[in-house]
């Protein structure tokens, strides 16, 4: 035992292969990974290695001329000795006593395969922004199909695809507009092997070869097209790679100055990466650690100054440009300040990345007497509340077809606790959600994390729109009352907003919905960030009504027509709209402001990817609706004693 081995054992999981008992026949002081100077373990036991027992360095590095080290033992103060080399030497010895490797010969080893275990240096399978413990190794069940211990090493000179001048490709090199997306979502990393293999000679005269160096290629692929080979450990430890977070740059600039300027160029494909412009560049790879790892490692291998910008949505771009002298063109900079363009790779914590808006299914009708303010229906409603009907038979069928689609689409998010469901508290919305919620809860029944989060939060801020009236407009039941119909309604949740009691004008509805959405999104962002899960993709599902869904589309995208009656965002019964987030608000920027109509949308802005899609419904689009001026009933108060005028509660166009 020793402090290093003890720490390594704590880093590795408990599911290791059984340790060979042969290792106890080798005195621990002969282990080459043990420091030659005395060291004390956590138990207070002092260990040191006898230098006389050191084996000559006869392994891959020395034979190839790559590692030129004396035959004496490595000293603890040798800063060039990678800690992963010590870990790999320790692991190899505990796998079999015949392998006692000099760590200095393992400096280029990135992983070990032995038995049914793979031991991989953490930078090889981590986000490029992260800085794993210098001795952290990940244990993975599996092997590469070779006997004994395979010491996996990268190629000496990784290859990179050359630009084909005879092949026509689109290279834009557009100015960076501040959009924090992911342009490298089709990037993948692949492992392969060359025919190069070198046995490890643990000591002179030993005939067996229980370990071998295996040349291993880590390749970047863009879909099915090879891009380059990587030496990840070398690249991520190089001095030209810098990691910068929002906490590293503090300032008091206004939100306008925090936004990026046009002096940066976007790189949005591997073709643009391999044929870069001659100025500072930005790679959009948010929420994609494989994309960041690939672009960062290859950028360093090509000798480019590389900055991985974490929390790109929070950083002040004005200060960042000044920090790296990027606020001036490269041609105008003194040579001693900057000789090469800087490549910035974006990383951002943006938990809520997708919003789904679902309109309720076809419902039963009601009627209104505006002179008395009384709502009525032919048949009683389950809740006994006015304007709170259940679904019509066709709406029930729509909800069941919707459940088949949503339960499949959202299963992974639900299972991992990355789904939050919100709904108007009117009965028809909760009834529409019922088959979907039950299907999702059944699918994740084995996951306590997913099941715990699969409750529906009643949010009246995205509830039904009733026009301005002289009487009090209907309100839904509260969560506690509705749980007898829908036991998965979250009775602890407090709605962010409540509509005005006597109804709203159209512009007031838009303000209410925009603010409610912003508050909900901010709440979930903060929930995941506080739990240390800010890098997870989170989906919000809202079930609401026609008017609120149209207003939601306008609030999320910032596209508000001058005429509210304009037909833009659809709202067919059981239609699904999908919105994908552009970015989170910059540091100091609010999720919602009273001037939201002149922004790119609340909470950073969103792109509409599906507009009331009904492809999952056998009946196709039905019962569409759009605004037709304000619904106002104020004038009916004077006529309350002059007879009855009935208005239908239908949502027909």
TrEMBL record:
Transmembrane regions listed in the UniProt entry: none
UniProt region (Disordered), positions on chain: 55-78
InterPro entries recorded: His_Pase_superF_clade-1, His_PPase_superfam, Phosphatase_SH3-domain
Record's compositionally biased regions (Polar residues): 55-66
Highest taxon of source: Eukaryota
PANTHER family, per database record: TRANSCRIPTION FACTOR TAU 55 KDA SUBUNIT, UBIQUITIN-ASSOCIATED AND SH3 DOMAIN-CONTAINING BA-RELATED
Name under which the protein is recorded: Uncharacterized protein
Organism this protein belongs to: Clonostachys chloroleuca
